[in-house]
Amino acid sequence: MAKSVKLENVTKTFTDDQRKSTHAVDHINLHIKEGQFTTLLGPSGCGKTTTLRMIAGFEDLSEGNIFFGDENVKQIPANKRDCTMVFQSYALFPHMTVYDNICYGLRLKKLSKQEIDKRVTPIMDIMNLHVNANRMPNQLSGGQQQRVALARALVMEPGVLLFDEPLSNLDAKLRITMRDEIRRIQKKLGITAVYVTHDQSEAMSLSDQIVVMNAGKIEQVGTPMEIYQQPTSKFVSDFIGTANFLDGKVESQSDDMLTVQTKDTKLDVYQDNALSFREGQPVSIVVRPEAIIIDEQGTEKAKVTKSVFMGHIQEYEVEYGGVSLYAIVADPGGKKTYSAGDEVSVRFSQQSLHVVPAS
Ligand SMILES: Nc1ncnc2c1ncn2[C@@H]1O[C@H](COP(=O)(O)OP(=O)(O)OP(=O)(O)O)[C@@H](O)[C@H]1O
Q1: If you measure from the C-alpha of residue 50 to the centroid of ligand 1, how many angstroms do you get, rounded to a whole number?
Q2: Which of 202, 229, 256 is the last residue of a domain?
């Protein structure tokens, strides 16, 4: 049965031979609801794998507690925890057939042959693995091997399913197919999933909840849309999607509206997340590339420095008030396009602007 996962003040400090300490994970708190797909996302070294390994029980906690449902699992060894991990390296047994690999954990649990068949057959159906049942892992493609690894984890019916960058050894196209498959099966079976990746598009497409980590701490937790549209820091805005920043100071605020004075202009920005600001505070306006309207009708003058036709979009770089802005125009066919050197004006689609603290 799917279980919730709660991390309470979880900390991991590694100490090397020279007694130098690394705070890999630094007092994090997180709640993952049962049946939810949560992704830990962040740059290399931010602590995502260490967090996942602590949930799995492969790594002891330096401080804090981890709960599966109401049960504190801190003292429970990995092989006794109600969770299974799918690894980047597949970790299949090379001398066993696909079927035997998938059954391995159930045989260890001493389930009868009928019980094993009852669990394995539907999973092999879902994952389209029957044709390969008698093959050895080295006779399979990378994608097929990862499917076997996933099936082997699923038949255990774990309370929590953990994924450590499971798709990073696959080519780009197969990664997309497999991630769709993982999401479909996770939803169908209602499993609680915790997934580690540094690939933002993977995180966006898979997750109910994204946890953005930076230097051992959690920067922000939210749905993919919240993380993209209402980032709470420059780090998150820059890490998820592409962001331009216009620096300025809060001039005034009322209810859900902030007026920000930048070097060249004054912009009103809706602010609908938990951040609060004071007048005079240095801030940055996050401007997504698709929020920039380029034409000749506005008063804010800019100069095109780069223009690239990409088929479905036109990419621009424009020089505006000493800042280089990256802009994209969707569906450029039929719209006027501009070339490097053209004088244009820029406007910003107000709905897509967002304010974060300057640092
Ligand atoms: N066994 C260890 N001993 C010492 N330091 C470690 C150990 N494992 C991880 N670290 C350090 O802890 C920090 C977090 O590492 P972690 O592997 O959790 O990051 P990550 O976000 O998963 O990175 P990546 O995407 O590169 O795998 C890093 O600074 C790393 O060097």
Answers
A1: 6
A2: 229
Q: 358 CA distance to ligand 1 centroid (A)?
A: 28
Q: Do 314 and 254 fall within a single domain?
A: yes
Give yes or no: residues 261 and 208 share one domain: no
Judgement on whether residues 148 and 63 belong to the same structural domain of the protein? yes
Q: Distance between alpha carbon 152 and the CA centroid of its chain, in Å?
A: 24
The gap between the terminal CA atoms of the chain, to the nearest Å, is: 43
pLDDT tens profile 161-200: 999 998 888 888 888 988 888 898 899 889 999 999 989 9
Give yes or no: residues 124 and 254 share one domain.
no
Q: Which two tokens stand for residue 81?
A: 């925890």
Residues with CB under 6 A from ligand 1: 14, 22, 24, 42, 44-50, 198
Helix (H) or strand (E) holding 178: helix 172-189
Q: Say what the pTM is.
A: 0.90
